[in-house]
Amino acid sequence: xxxxxxxxxxxxxxxxxxxxxxxxxxxxxxxxxxxxxxxxxxxxxxxxxxxxxxxxxxxxxxxxxxxxxxxxxxxxxxxxxxxxxxxxxxxxxxxxxxxxxxxxxxxxxxxxxxxxxxxxxxxxxxxxxxxxxxxxxxxxxxxxxxxxxxxxxxxxxxxxxxxxxxxxxxxxxxxxxxxxxxxxxxxxxxxxxxxxxxxxxxxxxxxxxxxxxxxxxxxxxxxxxxxxxxxxxxxxxxxxxxxxxxxxxxxxxxxxxxxxxxxxxxxxxxxxxxxxxxxxxxxxxxxxxxxxxxxxxxxxxxxxxxxxxxxxxxxxxxxxxxxxxxxxxxxxxxxxxxxxxxxxxxxxxxxxxxxxxxxxxxxxxxxxxxxxxxxxxxxxxxxxxxxxxxxxxxxxxxxxxxxxxxxxxxxxxxxxxxxxxxxxxxxxxxxxxxxxxxxxxxxxxxxxxxxxxxxxxxxxxxxxxxxxxxxxxxxxxxxxxxxxxxxxxxxxxxxxxxxxxxxxxxxxxxxxxxxxxxxxxxxxxxxxxxxxxxxxxxxxxxxxxxxxxxxxxxxxxxxxxxxxxxxxxxxxxxxxxxxxxxxxxxxxxxxxxxxxxxxxxxxxxxxxxxxxxxxxxxxxxxxxxxxxxxxxxxxxxxxxxxxxxxxxxxxxxxxxxx
Length: 658
Ligand code: ISL
Ligand code: CA
Description:
Blueprint (H helix, E strand, L loop, with lengths): L21 H6 L1 H13 L10 H5 L2 H12 L4 H9 L16 H4 L2 E4 L15 H6 L1 H7 L3 E4 L3 E2 L11 E5 L6 H13 L3 E6 L9 H8 L11 E2 L22 E4 L4 E4 L14 H17 L3 E4 L16 H7 L13 H13 L9 E5 L5 H8 L8 E3 L19 H13 L8 E2 L9 H5 L6 H14 L3 E5 L20 H12 L4 H11 L35 H6 L4 H14 L1 H5 L1 E5 L6 E8 L2 E8 L5 E2 L8 E5 L8 E2 L4 E5 L10
Parallel strand pairs: 1-2, 1-13, 2-5, 5-9, 9-10, 10-11, 12-13
Antiparallel strand pairs: 3-4, 6-8, 7-8, 14-15, 15-16, 16-20, 17-19, 18-20
């Protein structure tokens, strides 16, 4: 185990000011991530920052330039952000410790859409229990369940009314207990979703705050009295991720309340120690029931800059959420995470710590390392999202995603990790459209792409997170109108686009391309109407999708599902695929992605054609055996469109360390 450092007293990073050169800003872990993010968002490469002349520009000059463009000086905002982080990631010696979660494959279940056991049209815990053998046979190691807590369901359960109760539609607490023990009996683990940046406005704490805003619960949230002069104006300019102001007026108490997400999701005030005590209690309550950890919803948003200052307009415009620089990496984030880890997930004297996987929108590689380094005592893993959209695009643009981007992202990411670091691998979750559709929606490529994406995730270095249906090559839905959608984000966005004068057609195009409901339609277990998900009326209807159900794909040896099964078996059997080094080859060749995985005497080679054209490839060493390919037969020298191949060398002690 790496020795845990305590909150750094020393300052590793120099304090930057307006006289500092851009080069120093970029050498700072936070500066590096911010610059990379802003450039990516604009569709620019970060290469020019390395240019000597550009790097020598002082921040004052950069500030003047930014004022020409925006009328505001961005530099003071950015300096405040970087100077709040005194520490830098420590590389760590040797290989990362082989913890279980580095070797596991995770499978995310969105229970509402997984399987319905009582035919009310809503997926439930009984449905998950009924399909545990499917998951164990598939070969995944740990389940992550999206929220199952009691909730009014304004945001798919991410608005929790009671952390210690199960949503009536999901079933009963005893079923969660059964699920935990049935997972463990099958050699699987299970983590739940911890949603503690905010609660539902129906949570008892919020109800008490409403009843007595000046009482103890008033300080659980961000409740602000109106401005004397301008009572109509919210306390700051922050925007909600789901459109509109992040402030809601509460007429009953004459206060504003902060909600970074839906109006019914007021943010918890983590500055209040009682809030942190409550979270510790909730976690421990679930740990006593036997869960193995939590995926932690927007956990990097829990510390807000004191005084909640206005967000910078330019950042707001670029990232579509004004204010985000004041809470995506807030001043007490590290402290809060360390406290939570010590008091709940990894208390002194407990042998097997519980897993902490942070969902951290906006966090990049270096800030991610500062949140997950084995020596830091904070999170174990994060989901960073910078790879989910091509440069210059957001989820709301209708465009084709370039897999070359993910390749470059991974090569860069892996090259920056040391013995203290590890990364997650994923393309899909309940918040994003299906990856196959983003890359190439042509049905002709669906199966090949499904296998290619699976091969990439399951043979790359890192911890893969599969999302339900991905193993079936699920694709986006041809939704026809807003009535078919259930997602609060889609509905709010549509309304707000129309209000701001966007033509209906364009508003619908944005919603259709981005809707989270593409990934929330029910899993197809068998052919026909209802798809084996329910015999009732599903809460969200997906189209019939012949030959892409579990039953059909189980029968077909060449199916995407069976390709995933084979990959999962291989990965489980092969230390090189789980923990081995990764070495990329021909990285500059556009559209071609290839790498070695090596550990001890084992060596694998993966080759991917990221394009829809056949591709000539170098000859492979004769000793290498083709273990797996996505295409039944292709010309020996060529990779077919989107073909993935996996080779293995006979075990040889000489592979060690190469
Ligand atoms: O913030 C976003 C877009 O502006 C998204 O990236 C997304 O809302 C973010 O990743 C947070 O998602 C998580 O928290 C939300 C919930 O709706 C999502 O389902 C959850 O994954 C609020 O709890
Ligand atoms: Ca049900």
